[in-house]
Amino acid sequence: MARWVSLSMREAASMYGTAVAIFFVILVAALQGSVPPKSPFPYHIPLDSKGVLKLSWNVSYVQETIHFQLSVRDFRAGVLFGMSDRGELENADLVVLWTDGNRAYFADTWSDQKGQIHLDTQQDYQLLQAQETSDSLSLLFKRSFATCDPKDYLIEDDTVHLVYGILEEPVQSLEAINTSGLQTGLQLVQLLKTEVPTPAMPEDVQKMDLKAPEVTIPGEETTYWCHVIELSQSFSRHHIIMYEAIVTEGNEALVHHMEVFQCTAELDNPDFSGPCDSKMKPDRLNYCRHVLAAWALGAKPFYYPEEAGIAFGGPGFSRYLRLEIHYHNPLKIQGRQDSSGIRLYYTATLRRFDAGIMELGLVYTPVMAIPPRETAFVLTGYCTDKCTQLALPPHGIHIFASQLHTHLTGRKVVTVLARDGQERKIVNRDNHYSPHFQEIRMLKKIVSVHPGDVLITSCTYNTDDREVATVGGFGIHEEMCVNYVHYYPKTDLELCKSAVDPGFLQKYFHLVNRFNSEEVCTCPQASVPEQFTSVPWNSFSRETLKALYNYAPISMHCNKSSAVRFQGEWDLQPLPKIISTLKEPTPNCPAHRAPGPAGPTVVNIG
Question: For a surface tag, which of 33, 223, 297, 391 has the fewest beta carbons within 10 Å of its beta carbon?
């Protein structure tokens, strides 16, 4: 039977009214959508694969506050929870509940680069309630998006690396805690979800489950499983109007993210079910890469706008779909069966517009490369004004969702819309991007792109652990820089990307040869990856490569869905001229800060 855990007398009086009022905040103000929430905490994720820690939360955009509910099963001596830039428990913003054997304490803390825990002088995590049951402890606390405390993490729209640690034994003081000796973990999530009204489903809506066939999850930390699904030959043209995840019960912490890809229409049956990196995987499966649906841990159902749906089935559509599931199994659990997947909701009553998916960013080519030992190397791809002027309809298109994509060294991705030489708005940005957490995200506001506009996609990479250059390409150890934008009405333009002109890259290799004793092979038989491998990576070769990518002409790929370019001259194109860039947004600090406790809050948990 549950019992309410009492706080210290020092906090009880001020927090009683807060605890009562906060539930009205949660139920009324936190969710601003058109449909009342079914739960005061609409978002839920397991933090660890054993289900010891579970997190629920809601968002109040009016108050710019998140309310967290952290459930700890079999609570022992303490728990740490918080956020960090890349998922480390060092240099992290943390809330800590710990016991000294007699009493329990709650505090806003931070960790230094050695993992040592320190009390934050500004207590921005506010404990609202603690409740104990027979087998778990539940904590309710809140924090503002931005606190302007240099030790606090700025919560934005992008990916958040949640971190946690479990204390097995009591400690005599907060300063006695060091994260290096704890059971720790990481979970990726988007905390600030876009809230859009839920469209009504038509009467003729049908469902299609695309699921894994009772897969035995490998006992490896990371597995990407590919499974091909064949549609009936008689399946006619429909519109997908919604999709959601189906996760096998008990596997919620193992199924990390899932994607459904459409194969090219000309492809023969690529029948396969197995690890995506298997040598048995047919090469033609690489031609199944047109994204139809994507889900990641913590994501809610995805709804298309009422006026649009994505077409599938019928003439010109491949009958083959590829389901890809990322299993994250850090404890290397053996023998777990899984039949998770994606449930599509579709209708034969076609909507006014076909939705389309367009690729922005860089062409998959080795001419775009990142030197080794770089911590923040930027590559940029362009969808030029010349291409949008030629390929977009007079009234333009409307982007409503976006999926950012790189391979293993990607750290940040952003796409900016420019018009008349001026950056106007950000289409999508993730300053804490992780290649292991990919989902289609609804935009807070639809972005309209007109003929003559420019779309600029930049990716930031970290190759600090690599000894040779990382070139662009399809391989997992090669790199990509892509934004799959979802828009309507669908046009013939499917790919609007660029790469540096190959001739100018060869001039770069010749220039490096002139200033170095080690020669880069510029002979015709040498491939671009081989040339990059032989580059002596010093300050000259690095800075010159940056200059090449920032100023050299580009080769534009303004491609139709048939992979044929629109008519025109697309090689040796000048970079778009941008005379005005967007300023970095400044955090919206709380205007009036309520006085917080001077030190840890004492919590009596018996």
Answer: 33
Place of tokens 């739960």: 39
Q: What is the 3-state secondary structure (H, E, C) of 241-255?
A: EEEEEECCCCCCCCE
**pLDDT on residue 596:** 63
Identify the three-state secondary structure at position 542.
Answer: helix
- The answer to whether 510 is a known catalytic residue is no
CA proximity to 154, closest of 586, 489, 604: 586
- Contact present, 514 and 439 (Cβ < 8 Å): no
Residue with tokens 């320190």: 118
The answer on pLDDT for 5 being more than 50 is no
Amino acid at 428: N
How far CA 460 is from CA of 347, 387, 403, 422, 430, in Å, comes to 40, 25, 16, 22, 10
Is 416 in a helix, a strand, or coil? strand
The sign of the torsion formed by the CA atoms of 294, 300, 305, 308 equals positive
3-20 in b/e form (b: 16+ CB < 10 A) is eebebeeebeeebeebee
Residue 33 φ/ψ, nearest 5 degrees: -70, 175
What is the reported pLDDT for 39? 66
Is the pLDDT at 581 greater than 50? The verdict is yes
Q: Are 450 and 419 in contact (CB under 8 A)?
A: yes
pLDDT surpasses 50 at 19: no
Catalytic position from the list 405, 407, 486, 557:
405
CA distance 603 to 7: 5
290 catalytic? Reply is: no
Whether 80 shows a pLDDT value over 90: the answer reads: yes
Residue 557: closest CA among 377, 316, 368? 368
587 by DSSP, 3-state: which?
coil
**139 pLDDT higher than 50:** yes
* Structure confidence at residue 592 (pLDDT): 62
Please identify which of the residues 61, 118, 224, 450 carries the catalytic annotation: 224
Residue from 150, 176, 173, 171 nearest 91 by CA: 150
pLDDT tens digit string along 226-257? Answer: 999 998 888 999 999 999 999 999 898 889 88
Cβ pair 455, 415 in contact under 8 A: yes
What pLDDT score was predicted for residue 261? 87
Over the stretch 389-405, which tens digit does the pLDDT of each residue have? 999 999 999 999 999 99
Residue 202 CB burial class (10 angstroms; 0-12, 13-18, ≥19): middle
DSSP per residue over 469-508, as a string? -EEBSSSTTSB--EEEEEEES--SEEEEEEEE-HHHHHHH
Question: Stretch 99-103: mean pLDDT, rounded?
Answer: 90
How deeply is 36 buried, as exposed, middle or buried, from its count of CB atoms within 10 A (0-12, 13-18, 19+)? exposed
Closest CA to 476 of 378, 364, 358, 374: 364
For the purposes of burial, counting CB atoms within 10 Å of the CB of 378, is it exposed (0-12), middle (13-18) or buried (19 or more)?
middle
**H/E run at residue 391:** helix 385-391
Give pLDDT, residue 443.
94
In 5-77, DSSP assigns E strands to 43-46, 53-60, 65-73
